[in-house]
Amino acid sequence: MAGKVRPDQKSTGPLAGMKVIELAHIMAGPVCGLMLADMGADVIKVEKPEGDDSRRFLPPDINGESAAYMMMNRNKRGIALNLKDPAAVEVLRKLLAEADVVIENYRKGAMEKLGLSYEDLAKINPRLIYCEISGFGRTGPYAERGGFDLIAQGMSGLMSITGEGPGRPPVKVAAPISDINAGIIAAMGVSAAYANMLQTGLGQKVDTSLFEAAIVQTYWQSAIAFATGNKPDPLGSAHPLNAPYQAFQTSDGWINVGAANQSNWLRFLDVISAPELDADPRFSSNATRIQNLPALVEILNGYMVQDTSENWLNRMEAAKLPAGPVNDILQMHADPQARAREMIVEVDHDTAGKVETIGHPIKFSRTPAEITRASPRLGQHSCEVLAEYGYDRAQTEALIKSNAVIAADAG
Questions:
Q1: Cα 3 from chain centroid?
Q2: Vertex 46 angle, CA 50 and 52, to 5°
Q3: CA-CA to 95 of 20 to 30 Å: which in 2, 8, 114, 338?
């Protein structure tokens, strides 16, 4: 049974009271908004008239609603503006004048053309935190380039260390890791800038990118390269600094074993009934095990394929040896620990019905993060938001009639 969320109500999260305008699409920017919303911020997602591009990432869908869009945009309110219309730009300017944070991942120069650059907005709202997420950052020789996860993974070096071994085709991390990590890093930067703003009364720019978000995933491999001058190669599931620390095939599947330090190594040998391997000079220390990793893996595989994953995992748990199954995504969703930690939760969507989504990964003891609403339909909260910002019914109807504002909640 998925974790349940409370009916939509005022947040109790640590960022309750923070007002965020999300001018972002597809993934990195929406991840930032999602993180802030889960932690209590009121995030208003501003979409173009045709909606965020992820609304058209179909299939899969649930009752016509894009599963991808719903995943990235839960906990947010939605308003749709035609920013080619000056009246819509003025609506947005009014929202930004009262916001604590704006998140944008447009191409460089797009906000400036609208008169909504950081410099423009700081004049009317000096407390504003202006978060820019781009492909390569707003400075440097690549600042004009667009941002794509695949390109960032390749240029950061990640694809050179991912895969089964040297001499094979490059492999990207299957998850869009630079997109997701950029959004998480941006949320961290926004939270830090918000803390500073509460102390000083002044906002600032927060600028990060997919490229930088991918680079910081190379800490271990970069440490090796800095120290040796050599480029690390892909190692499959193995670790560049510790062994054995990787996946092993069993008689009916795969499990991961973390027997890297010496005490765990000895426990592992006890579990597989191979104490003689510790006397082998090739495997007597972590350094020699790393040097002789192919030979070590070949020998260990010979032991591991003799029994089932379940039996090995039971023995390793009894020996307090780090180990775990290699789950597929559906198995992860059903994992009792994922459920106990509320990493799988259920929300009610207006048209899709009950849908499951990924929960928030941080647990707060006093100000819990919460998922209280499903993703918005296009323009679902346009009228509600306009009313909050001082637009009367006649003004709102005029904006809708002129197509400056698209509203699913009109009438």
A1: 20
A2: 40
A3: 8
Give per-residue pLDDT as tens, 288-317. 999 999 999 999 999 999 999 999 999 999
Instruction: With beta carbons less than 8 A apart as the criterion, state whether 91 and 98 touch.
Output: no
Q: Is 64 inside any structural domain?
A: yes
Predicted structure pTM score? 0.92
Q: 50-109 pLDDT, tens per residue? A: 999 999 999 999 999 999 999 999 999 999 999 999 999 999 999 999 999 999 999 889
Rg (CA), the chain: 25
Give CA–CA dist 4/370, Å, rounded. 10
Contact status, residue 313 vs residue 319, Cβ threshold 8 Å: no
d(CA 373, CA 357) in angstroms, rounded, equals 11
Extended beta strands in 72-142, E state: 77-81, 101-104, 129-134
Total domains in the chain come to 2
Last residue of a domain, one of 325, 359, 381: 325
Segments forming the whole domain that contains residue 315: 254-325
Annotated catalytic residues are 179
Angle of the 177-200 helix axis to the 28-38 helix axis, nearest 10:
50
CATH number for the domain harbouring residue 312? 3.30.1540.10
Final residue in a domain of this structure, among 281, 301, 325 = 325
Show Cβ contacts of residue 369 under 8 Å, excluding neighbours closer than 6 positions: 13, 14, 38, 39, 40, 360, 362, 363
Comparing CA positions, the residue from 410, 411, 396, 409 lying closest to residue 87 is 396
Neighbours of 362 (CB within 10 A): 12
Give φ, ψ of 344 to 5 degrees. -125, 115
**Average pLDDT value for the chain:** 94
- Whole-angstrom Cα distance, residue 91 to residue 239? 52
